[in-house]
Amino acid sequence: MAAEGDVDLDLEAEENCTGKPAEKPRKHDSGAADLERVTDYAEEKEISSSDLETAMSVIGDRRSREQKAKQEREKELAKVTIKKEDVELIMGEMEISRGVAERSLREHMGNVVEALIDLSN
């Protein structure tokens, strides 16, 4: 009977060995099922054309407003009178181009000191 008991233990040991690999595919299958749920959800959610058109029009409106504001700012800066000597002074002191010097002077309403301070920072 001892020999029969040994055989029973061996069978139980074989069942344990085959039982562990059987659990791994289940875990793998559950992961695949989770992945399918995620991809199914993403596929179900679609953007409607009307929502897309609305979003594009909002973006377009915002861009046009920003462009208009920029043009108005440029017009205001163009009205500011600056002296040629001031531009040359800033160009010489800061070693920058004429365009940058003029822009800085116009932004500071022709005030050389403020323009120089701003450029040095």
From TrEMBL:
Stretch list, region Disordered: 1-74
Biased composition (Basic and acidic residues): 21-48, 60-74
A Pfam family reported for this protein in Swiss-Prot or TrEMBL: UBA_HYPK
Signal peptide: none
Annotated Acidic residues bias: 1-15
Occurrences of domain Nascent polypeptide-associated complex subunit alpha-like UBA (ranges): 80-119
InterPro entries, alphabetized: Huntingtin-int_K, HYPK_UBA, NAC-like_UBA
Alphabetized PANTHER family for the sequence: HUNTINGTIN-INTERACTING PROTEIN K (PTHR31184:SF2), HUNTINGTIN-INTERACTING PROTEIN K FAMILY MEMBER (PTHR31184)
Protein name: Huntingtin-interacting protein K
Species whose genome carries this gene: Esox lucius
Chain's gene name: HYPK
